[in-house]
């Protein structure tokens, strides 16, 4: 284990004082770029997806490798069960955790997550996206980005609605791909008979 392992660590102290989500990101705005280490893989740079495919960013709240937020754990599992649907739409899901690299590797192994798990123990990216914090960990938040990296959907934590509904994320992806993200439906050519 690392010196940052366990519940009461530097991340806990840095994120203890509650701060509500305060993202200034607006729909249609180009989202901030970042690069984070990936568990069992090369580092991931968000801008590498620009011009390639839509991306779902899922900031999740995990306290330690064995202590999950009771509001986020079901969401993590739902995304795991529905990851193939996200991929079938041509999108990628990037889950971002604030656990340290050792904890994150254990989480990846124990939960057998099929999607990339990115590691941000300093919570820099959580702050960049303004998801907020409380009681020792950053809050969850979900963002859907189009192929150009523009924000098309955001969901920020509240006790009434802690995580985005996966059906809603899939609906946003489907509609965006059908309309080109601008609300104008793409018309398929009529096939010659």
TrEMBL record:
InterPro entries cross-referenced by the UniProt entry = AhpC/TSA (IPR000866), Thioredoxin-like_sf (IPR036249), Thioredoxin_domain (IPR013766), Tpx_Peroxidase_subfamily (IPR050455)
* Superkingdom as given in the UniProt entry: Bacteria
The record's SUPFAM superfamilies line, in alphabetical order, gives: Thioredoxin-like
Transmembrane parts of this sequence: none
Does this UniProt record's set of keywords contain Oxidoreductase?
Answer: yes
Q: Name the keywords, alphabetized.
A: Antioxidant, Oxidoreductase, Peroxidase, Redox-active center
Q: Which residue numbers delimit the Thioredoxin domain?
A: 25-178
Gene3D superfamilies attached to this UniProt entry: Glutaredoxin
Matching entries from PANTHER family are given as: THIOL PEROXIDASE (PTHR43110:SF1)
* Protein name, UniProt field: Redoxin domain-containing protein
Species whose genome carries this gene: Thermostichus vulcanus str. 'Rupite'
């Amino acid at each position: 284990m690392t010196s940052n392992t366990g519940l009461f660590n530097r991340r806990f102290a840095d994120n203890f004082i509650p701060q509500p989500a305060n993202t200034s990101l607006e729909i249609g705005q180009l989202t901030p770029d970042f690069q984070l280490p990936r568990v069992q893989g090369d580092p991931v740079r968000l801008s590498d997806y620009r011009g390639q495919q839509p991306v779902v960013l899922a900031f999740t709240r995990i306290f330690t490798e064995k202590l999950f937020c009771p509001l986020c754990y079901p969401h993590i599992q739902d995304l795991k069960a529905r990851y193939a649907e996200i991929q079938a739409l041509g999108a990628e899901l990037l889950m971002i955790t604030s656990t340290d690299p050792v904890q994150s590797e254990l989480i990846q192994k124990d939960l057998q997550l099929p999607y990339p798990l990115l590691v941000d123990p300093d919570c820099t990216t959580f702050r960049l996206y303004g998801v907020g914090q409380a009681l020792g960990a950053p809050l969850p938040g979900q963002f859907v980005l189009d192929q150009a990296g523009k924000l098309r959907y955001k969901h920020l934590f509240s006790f009434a609605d802690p995580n985005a509904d996966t059906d809603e994320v899939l609906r946003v992806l489907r509609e965006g791909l059908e309309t080109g993200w601008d609300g104008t439906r793409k018309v398929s050519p009529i096939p010659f008979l």
